[in-house]
Amino acid sequence: MAKKKNPRAKAVKHDPFINTVEALFSSNPFKSFNFRQVAKxxxxxxxxxxxxxxxxxxxxxAGNVILELNRGKYKYNPELLAxxxxxxxxxxIVDMKQTGKAYVSTPDLDEDVFIxxxxxxxxxxxxxxKVHLFPMRKGRKTxxxxxxxxxxxxxxxxxxxxxxxxxAFLVPDDVAMPVDIFIPRESLNKAGHGQKAxxxxxxxxxxxxxxxxxxxxxxxxxxxxxxxxNSILASFEFPLQFKPExxxxxxxxxxxxxPAEIAARKDFRNIWTCTIDPPDAKDFDDALSLRKLENxxxxxxxxxxxxxxxxxxxxxxxxxxxxxxxxxxxxDRTIPMLPEKLSNMVCSLRPRxxxxxxxxxxxxxxxxxxxxxxxGKTIINSDRRYNYEEVQAMIEGADxxxxxxxxxxxxxxxxxxxxxxxxxxxxxxxxEVKFVLDETGKPIDTYIKEQKEANMLIEDFMLLANRxxxxxxxxxxxxxxxxxxxxxxxxxxNPEKLxxxxxxxxxxxxxxxxxxxxxxxxxxNHLFDQIAGKGEENMIESIAIRTMSKAEYSTVNxxxxxLAFQYYTHFTSPIRRYPDLMVHRLLERYLAGKPSVNxxxxxEYCVHSSEMERKAVEAERASVKYKQAEFLMxxxxxxxxxxxxxxxxxxxxxxxxxxxCEGMVSLKYMDDDFYYLDDENxxxxxxxxxxxxxxxxxxxxxxxxxxxxxxxxxxxxxxNGVDPKRR
Length: 727
Prior knowledge:
- The chain is of the alpha+beta class.
- The chain has 5 domains: 65 residues, Orthogonal Bundle (Arc Repressor Mutant, subunit A); 70 residues, CATH 2.40.50.690; 67 residues, CATH 2.40.50.700; 341 residues, no CATH class; 93 residues, CATH 2.40.50.140.
- Helices cover 30% and strands 26% of the residues.
- The chain has 18 helices and 34 strands.
- The protein has a 7-stranded mixed β-sheet with strand order 14-21-20-17-16-15-22. Strands 6-5-4-7-8 form a 5-stranded antiparallel β-sheet, with no helix packed on it. A 5-stranded antiparallel β-sheet has the order 11-10-9-12-13, covered by helices on one side.
- Helix 2 packs across helix 3, helix 12 packs across helix 13 and helix 14 packs antiparallel against helix 16.
- The longest helix is centred in the last third of the chain and has 35 residues.
- It is globular and about 75 Å long.
- It starts with 15 loop residues before the first helix and ends in a 10-residue tail after the last strand.
């Protein structure tokens, strides 16, 4: 048999330009590029030179200097990296797993770096680290060793205190924290055995397996609702109360509005206005007004609470609002960004009270075409506070206050929505589980919150205001340079991720169109309609969202891919989001003709705001997971219907109907056969009887075990696992 040739680089005739192209790949050995990206990096713009770049890439690929991965993507040949990697290091962020192994994500590489448990050093989840890369091994992923912790991702940890003799430890709640924290007895600060507490790491000796720390706050007894919710907040380093100086400053803010301030604003108090919010909302930050104009058009006002009038830069309230970044919505409570006097009273657009607003006002015809727009400071007096259910009932035919006005607003919103989807907006479907709680905060029932037309009515007008504000500031006119602004951006998805997602869908019997931007959007929307109510719905939607880029704040406008908007910002929720407050200040500044602000400074603000938003979302998810586990705590042995939401080599994941609680049926408990994973087809199969459990299948389970602290639920199949309703 002929020997297989070693695919090392062949001699390639070098010239200055090909040397430059090769150097680009060798200096970025783990990243892949197509010819357009290479041309851009080289500053090549004309057609002839771009074609030359394409030819050079083909030559380098023919010589095995670079490898063509797929669809015109090239990467430096890893077999040429052995010597290079001995001295190569990268920096990135640690993603620690429960097993102790980790992955480091870095902008220098296309893929994460795998770190075995014995090569993590003293790194923890979320740390910024320096990694030495190992020489590439054929068929293996990039591996390395953490050699330095550059910056800790967090400074405090929540867990349960365990005291034994002369020793004490804090056992962290976070499963991504692989070690316990040793607490000297003199550093317990009155914490008792079994109590929930917050600890801070003080040192980590080189040869010690465990870090040393001190208790900085005792939270209380595990299982108590307030203790558990505060534990979640503390684990993400959100403050549990406002600073005294912030509260003191808030108390001094007057509720009354001066005649001079009223005179300086456009007066909407005699125009019909309403707010539409959830039934339990207290911070009403947006209102809609409507009136018929003499020319037959409608004037729609989107009125947003004028927080910037009350919260001035560099005050105690502003500094703490910036630090918090956002309000947090846990299952049983709201942790506001601003003190309650502001969020629920002074700024909140409560009915039949004069309130200050920053407004976007649009003149539009019956089809939603805008003929005129105006942005500025206003004063309103809301005629009615509605909840979504009241408005939805009127949309569906019920009688109610100002029904005519609400139906007109709804019809205009439908027109705006139709136009948005026509231009390629993607309707990501998300189902939100809600809990019915008793007086102690214990969940006694669950239900799924549906996104109905009343919700979309508000959403479409908020989207309109956000888009047009961003266009007003961001759109270039003449020779003028766009001013620094805070955008809400959503970049294009990675083509390789999209391709992998399409392949995954094909195996499940679904298709998406990867051809054009509009075609992709249309097929995504069709897909979400197809999977609605099916077992694979949750998993497909989750993967679809992960396939997309993450939305974030930036001074660099990349547009919003998911909404198909060239310009987009967040203007409509300044009570609960700090970026919206920044947008209000910038819009007021630029409408007054003042010069642009420092871009680097505001980019830093954007990065911080994006990070705080991410942490808030994680905290909210953690509170939902805890309540789901708590809901099943007294239902050990009870049977439920569910749908298979995932499969792994360890078992099948089942999402329960109604509560969306997700747990795992371990393969070791499926003892009627020996089951193995067929990961290509997302199923597990019995070796002897051939019975299969695949993604989306209905099953019936019993609750076997619930771990509240880990927020984990274990199930077993009930009888033969068949849902009796589907036999």
